[in-house]
Amino acid sequence: MDGNGRWANERGLPRIEGHRRGAEAVKRTLKAVQDNGVKIITLYAFSVENWNRPKKEVDALMKLLERFLADQLPVLIKRKIRLRVIGRYQELPERVQDRLRKAEAATKDFTTHTLALALNYGARTEVVDAVKAIAKAAQAGDIDLNALDYDGFRPYLYTSDLPDPDLVIRTSGESRLSNFLLLQAAYAELYITPVLWPDFDETHFKAALADYASRERRYGKTAEQLQAT
Ligand code: FPP
């Protein structure tokens, strides 16, 4: 969800106004996701690197998140959307953790739609956390390292109960993954749009889906092999 700062700068507004408008785009997108039959969306809302931003901006983002969770919980319940958090949860401000725990608990039984929020998330941190957990399990004799393969590694990722993403959309024209789901997105289709996140709406979402529908996913195979199946 990139481009909040630029959206605000272009209008001579403070960066946080861009984030506020970004939160409105989140609400719009969540509706578009559901209306277009997409079951799971993961939003990269705060990275482990984002703590390096000015304290004023970090504090404002946490407040915005807290308010978003309070306002949107009834909406998630009404639309039967499960909330999941991926990232180092326990390092977030207590008040945000509280809201997240409440929202996760209240929506845990919904099975059709999931909103995953990547908060204090970083793919490299995720891999390190997974490796530490695996080392612990190996020490305890619970896993056999010689037999470990990616299927055995996967349950140690924050996304253990989520499928890999099919499509990764990045707004504001930047062509990089910025430490987002690096392992899980290994075979995801990437869609880069110049639209700044606060302007993102259902039309842009549909354009991304249409583009995705035109891709041929080969997973390392040849086009001929795919045609034969
Ligand atoms: C990146 O844009 C955006 C963020 C670091 C924060 C994303 C947060 C929101 C969209 C709002 C709050 C989220 C929820 C789920 C309610 P940027 O600030 O790096 O933009 P720039 O590159 O133009 O400066």
Give the topology, please.
Layout: H1 4-10, H2 15-35, E1 40-47, H3 55-78, E2 81-86, H4 94-107, E3 113-121, H5 123-139, H6 150-153, E4 167-170, E5 189-192, H7 202-213, H8 223-228
Parallel strand pairs: 1-3, 2-3, 4-5
Helix pairs in contact: 1-2, 2-3, 3-4
The structure holds farnesyl diphosphate.
Which CATH class is shown? Answer: Alpha Beta
- Taken in chain order, the helices and strands follow as HHEHEHEHHEEHH
Q: What is the number of helices?
A: 8
Q: In the residues, how many domains can be counted?
A: 1
Structural class: alpha/beta
The geometry reads as: globular
The CATH homologous superfamily is called: Decaprenyl diphosphate synthase-like
Strand content: 5-15%
Structural overview:
This protein has 229 residues and is of the alpha/beta class. It has a single domain, classed as Decaprenyl diphosphate synthase-like (Undecaprenyl pyrophosphate synthetase). Helix content is 46%, strand content 14%. It contains 8 helices and 5 strands; from the N terminus they run ααβαβαβααββαα. The strands form 2 sheets. A 3-stranded parallel β-sheet has the order 1-3-2, sandwiched between helices. A two-stranded parallel sheet has the order 4-5. α4 (94-107) links the parallel β2 (81-86) and β3 (113-121). It is globular and about 55 Å long. The two termini are 37 Å apart. The model has no long low-confidence stretch (mean pLDDT 97). Bound molecules: farnesyl diphosphate. Farnesyl diphosphate (FPP) binds at residues 1-6, 19, 22-23, 26, 43, 45, 50, 61, 64-65, 68, 117, 172, 197. Farnesyl diphosphate (FPP) is lined by residues 1-6, 19, 22-23, 26, 43, 45, 50, 61, 64-65, 68, 117, 172, 197.
